[in-house]
Amino acid sequence: MSTAFHPQTDGETEQVNQEIEVYLRAFCSKEQTRWKEYLPLAEFAHNNRTHSVLKKSPFYMMMGYHPRPLPTIFEKTTIPSVEERLEELKRVREETVSLLELARQQMIRREKQKLDMFKEGQKVWLEAKNLATGYPSKKLAPKREGPFKILKALGPVTYKLDLPHQWKIHPVFHAALLSPFKQTEAHGLSFTEPPPDLIEGFEEYEVEAIVGHRLKKRPQEFLVSYTGYDSSHNRWIRMEGMTNCLDLLKGYIKKHRVKPKDPIPTET
């Protein structure tokens, strides 16, 4: 069993895709209009190469021999179009093999990357690039979420975090997505979370801002942040439950030109 976005235990298909993407990206930068024609050659070069783990090529594992590649030296022909095509295929094959080797070296360097080691109870930041945070613009959204406490170290590079209960995601992450939290004057114990207000015997938190929305699915909801709390405490609230922040709701709808299907609630 593996975790999502785990560089070493990501699925076999994902690893192959990542490797192919590296050299194909560089290759397509030159052949952007005809890249589909060269996919079979890229696939052949990948399957005919000896892999570091298997010590054999995929072709040899499946068939017991290596298929004959395109010849590196072509006989001259009297037909110009054939001669040009053979020269082009030779160039493409040699370039593809070179890019495959470049991709292999990059994968090796990535696997040898040194990762931070964490302990149970330690607080860490979580990279937000793979999280559906709900912010209107992902480019302007926080790059990290947290800090979160490590509940358990499941292995040398895998950790279980104490995530907010409203986050409906798997709480186990690879160390590459974590960075140590260092307590400073800006992130210290002096900034404690304020207690909720008691209104008619019920706890109510002050909404600081509305930072996102999802109206395509029912019920329609808005992502709100609370005064004195970090973004890890943001919650999705149904529109009918936002009577205590109607001014913020109306301002958000006007600013982002949102067209909710349900009527805006009124003060009770």
From TrEMBL:
Pfam families: Chromo (PF00385), SH3_Tf2-1 (PF24626)
Listed Gene3D superfamilies: 2.40.50.40, Ribonuclease H-like superfamily/Ribonuclease H
Domain Chromo positions: 205-264
PROSITE patterns xrefs: CHROMO_2
Family annotation (SUPFAM superfamilies): Chromo domain-like, Ribonuclease H-like
BP terms from Gene Ontology: chromatin remodeling
Domain of life, source organism: Eukaryota
InterPro entries membership: Chromo-like_dom_sf, Chromo/chromo_shadow_dom, Chromo_domain, Retrovirus_Pol_polyprotein, RNaseH-like_sf, RNaseH_sf, SH3_Tf2-1
Transmembrane spans: none
GO molecular function: nucleic acid binding
Record-given protein name: Chromo domain-containing protein
Organism: Moniliophthora roreri
Lineage: Eukaryota, Fungi, Dikarya, Basidiomycota, Agaricomycotina
